[in-house]
User: Fold this.
Amino acid sequence: MIHPFRANARVLLASLVGTSVEFYDFYIYATAAAIVFGPLFFPSDSSSTELLASYGSLAVAFVARPVGAWAFGHFGDRIGRKSTLVASLMLMGGSTMLIGALPTYASAGIWAPVLLCILRFGQGFGLGGEWGGAALLAVENAPEGWRARFGMVPQLGAPVGYVAANSLFLLLGATMSRADFLAWGWRIPFLLSIVLVGLGLWVRLKLTETPAFRAALQEAPPPSVPLIELLREHPLEVLGGTFGAVACFAVYYLATAFALGYGTTTLHIEQQTFLLMQLGAIVFMAISIPVSGWLADRWGAGRVLSWGCVAAAAAGLLLAPTLQSGSLPVIFAGLSFALIVMGLVYGPLGTWLPSLFPARVRYTGVSLAFNVAGILGGALTPIAAVWLAREGGLIWVGLYLAGASLMSLIALLALGRKKRAG
Assistant:
């Protein structure tokens, strides 16, 4: 008997390659926002003000993501998953490449940050349709008993994209001076994204539609406006799915974007050193994602996510003691634990969110819940964390994460109770 992964190798590769490309594009922006975009596009007398403005541009994509979720979800539920996934990949890849060609504030004045935010919106719009489609591509092709393990494959795009992005930044930092990196070196990761997008398109153009989408079309015509049908018939699932996914975004952006900015500007840890620690810590996330998929097929995705939220609250309480310890091994241990937790609250999402919605509105439902959660847990988190750390200390940043995790846990338990009652 052929192993399910081998029998569906092309589908799983397409879901993984696509999300790897998308998250590579997204992470090079997050890294650049933490280390170079402040002085280049938002110059100020205060480094913390520059960092806040830079993180503000990072948040623009999260505002765009629900809009992209609606647009791509609409067509994904009406005309199919394949064409929608190709379009989302092209949009985000094109926006990323153009960021690498932008003039800075020194040469274009106020137009530089304006154009940066417009292209950042394009990135977020594309990603709004990417994750949901990739998750459905995997889950809707999964054999019985393998949904969570198939659903975690596109989630692996997060650590793959992160390692590719930050490894490139590390290489550039090691081979060129700070002046050259600020002048032109930061552009290279953005321009290189076109190569990765080409690879993703080559894989995705060979796909066929998923069995679940074909079956839904045979049962009834597609909804004329999927969003209206979704909100009319499944409002509690949209609301619960959104808040259930908040914790994963909060954990990730505190352990990566915020920690990098705080470590290099406030703790004065060398940039290369901190990036190396984060690269080492992300390996633990890459391990915990498939472990969480295996556990979710055994115990249920909702149960694994619930325990992950409890662990995320603990990670929040450990944030201040580890980052302020002054010990690099302790800081690395704290980052590693946070990213292990990230795998536990991220890996099962690819199965849990699709399980909340019927196939005819599933693309819209999954994309909308995931991307609105991105605003609540991701867009606001780095900005709030910088402000909380400056005004009240790092302990308040940890309490912020614990509160976000508790919010997700309540949503998970409420939806689980509703499902059992049904």
